[in-house]
Write a structure and sequence with these properties.
Elements lengths: L4 H27 L5 H21 L4 H17 L34 H5 L6 H9 L1 H12 L15 H17 L4 E2 L13 H4 L7 H15 L3 E6 L30 E8 L2 H4 L5 H27 L4 E4 L8 H7 L3 E3 L5 E3 L6 E8 L13 H7 L2 H5 L12 E3 L2 E3 L4 H11 L5 H5 L8 H12 L1 H15 L31
Bound molecules: iron/sulfur cluster (2 copies).
């Protein structure tokens, strides 16, 4: 049989397929500037080229090669077959609640590290907050002395002015749009200047399915990379306002109103070539740019709802009233990861999240199952590489505010941001789900969505190919991050920047 031309053809074609895959993987990993994966992939390509020679020139080797290729193919098939009863039902955000959900405590925006950091010490609100939370005072006072959320922005790279200025230029954008977040045809303050009151108040009659199709495509056209719709579960709305912009301190501590019934949730992709420099300044620049994109997209969407005669409120970095991650889970954009961020479809944690709440009836999406829950149980890469040890390493989740999850220690993470002057992003950069949305990684994601076994085995394979610990890479060619102090006169951000 080993000399039959059909047998030789089949062996050669299967082997050729593997050579193609290995060569593509080599090319992709060189492009991604991975240190280890290209060497392993190139070795595999070379070995299979050698097998091609053996198949043609050494008949007695063909049976062994057939066994070897057959086992390899069978393994691939195993990773494509869904095991009975798995994957499990996709989890909505409320499925992360412990038990019957009665232990759930709503998030209060006043308790977030961002709100506490931007609290002004000369105000009565400062006294009020720390009278109720004396345990947080010493740590917060110390952290505030370092500056705003990023301390002295860009300090890890000598506050290299071109990069710090890129952040300043883009992060200004949500500030410009924050007070335009609300659209309300019935209110002169929140109505378009281009519409007459009597026209604006007439609600457009649109079929919800048609409206959903339009708004999703409009969002994508405006630059959103993922869009989904959900009904807003009021549990994901902050209980009280804590992050104050435009010096509007009277709003601090006010209860946040019941949300409108629907949300259009938007994710923008952070460029992998920028993120791979984490924790250096290109990641910070990319975060700032994405916050600008989110503010732009959601403000236009909100105003679109307004022009259609409905109420809407954009949710972006100068106007968040609710938690974006549970909303994104309910809108079918992804799952919750070990570090508490969204693991988004196609991009993993390499996204920023925004939303628009509205009373226009829309058709909600369904949650998805990407395999991240099982994968995160085994993979602890983000936790092992986190410089501030803020990410739990335990396999099992714990109960926090009535939610079953791994909980990131926000204080220590934030403290580290203050030290280095960027938003770090190492956990985002090292996560296997963050890899660029190119064919090889798309194939892996496809298998993870289908196969429970892949979710258990792939974290180990990922460690072999990519290593366990994070090492920053160079960002794009034009994007430097020189070491040491390069330009003396770098402006320091105001505290609420
Ligand atoms: S951003 Fe950095 S410090 Fe914060 S949790 Fe991620 S890796 Fe740790
Ligand atoms: S690095 Fe690993 S453990 Fe951390 S979020 Fe990503 S998949 Fe989960």
């Amino acid at each position: 049989m080993s000399n039959s031309p059909t047998f030789i053809w089949i062996l050669s074609l299967v082997n050729l397929g593997i050579i193609g895959m290995a060569a593509l993987f080599t090319y992709e990993s060189i492009r991604e500037e991975e240190p280890r994966a290209p060497k392993l992939a190139a070795t595999a390509t070379a070995l299979h080229l050698l097998l091609a020679v053996f198949i043609l020139a050494w008949p007695s080797s063909r049976v062994f090669i057939a066994w070897y290729l057959g086992i390899g193919l069978a393994l691939q098939v195993v990773f494509l077959i869904p095991i009975k009863g798995r994957p499990a039902r996709p989890m909505s955000a409320s499925d992360y609640l412990y038990g019957d959900g009665s232990d759930f405590i709503p998030a209060d925006e006043r308790d977030t590290v961002f709100s506490r950091n931007t609290m002004r010490t000369d105000l009565k609100q400062y006294e009020t907050y720390y009278r109720e939370h004396p345990e947080k005072k010493a740590c917060d006072d110390k952290r505030r002395k370092r500056g705003g959320p990023l301390g002295k922005p860009g300090s890890i790279d000598g506050r290299y002015r071109p990069n710090v200025s890129m952040l300043v230029s883009s992060i200004d954008f949500p500030v410009m749009l924050g007070d335009k977040a609300t659209a309300d045809p019935k209110s002169a303050a929140h109505r378009s200047h281009f519409l007459k009151k009597e026209d604006a108040e007439i609600r457009a009659k649109v079929d919800p399915a048609k409206a959903t199709k339009i708004v999703k495509n409009w969002a994508k056209h405006l630059g959103a990379d993922l869009v989904g719709v959900c009904k807003i579960d009021p549990r994901w709305v902050y209980s009280h306002r804590g992050r104050i912009h435009y010096n509007d301190w009277e709003n601090w501590g006010k209860e946040i109103a019941e949300p409108l019934p629907y949300a259009v949730v938007v994710a923008t992709e952070m460029d992998y070539d920028m993120v791979r420099s984490a924790p250096h300044t290109p990641t910070m620049v990319e975060s700032g740019y994405n916050y600008a994109r989110g503010a732009y997209i959601t403000t236009i969407l909100s105003r679109w709802f307004g022009a259609m005669g409905y109420k809407a409120v954009a949710q972006h970095s100068r106007h968040y009233e609710m938690l974006m991650v549970p909303l994104a889970i309910d809108a079918g954009l992804g799952e919750l990861g070990r570090f508490g961020y969204l693991m988004a479809d196609k991009f993993g944690p390499r996204v920023r999240l925004f939303a628009v709440q509205t009373d226009m009836p829309l058709v909600p999406d369904k949650p998805i199952d990407m395999g991240a829950q099982k994968f995160c149980e085994i993979c602890v890469k983000c936790g092992e590489s986190c410089p501030s040890k803020s990410i739990p390493l335990e396999r099992n989740k714990k109960i926090d505010r009535g939610i079953e999850r791994w909980t990131l220690k926000a204080e220590t993470c934030f403290e580290y941001w203050g030290k280095i002057g960027t938003d770090c992003c190492i956990c985002m950069a090292i996560c296997p789900f963050s890899r660029p949305n190119r064919p090889i990684h798309r194939f892996v994601r496809f298998m993870l969505r289908r196969s429970y076994l892949a979710r258990i085995v792939f974290p180990y394979i990922d460690n072999i190919l990519y290593g366990r610990r994070w090492k920053p890479r160079k960002a794009l060619d034009w994007m430097d991050y020189p070491k040491g102090r390069t330009l003396e006169e770098v402006p320091v951000f105001k505290a609420d920047a």
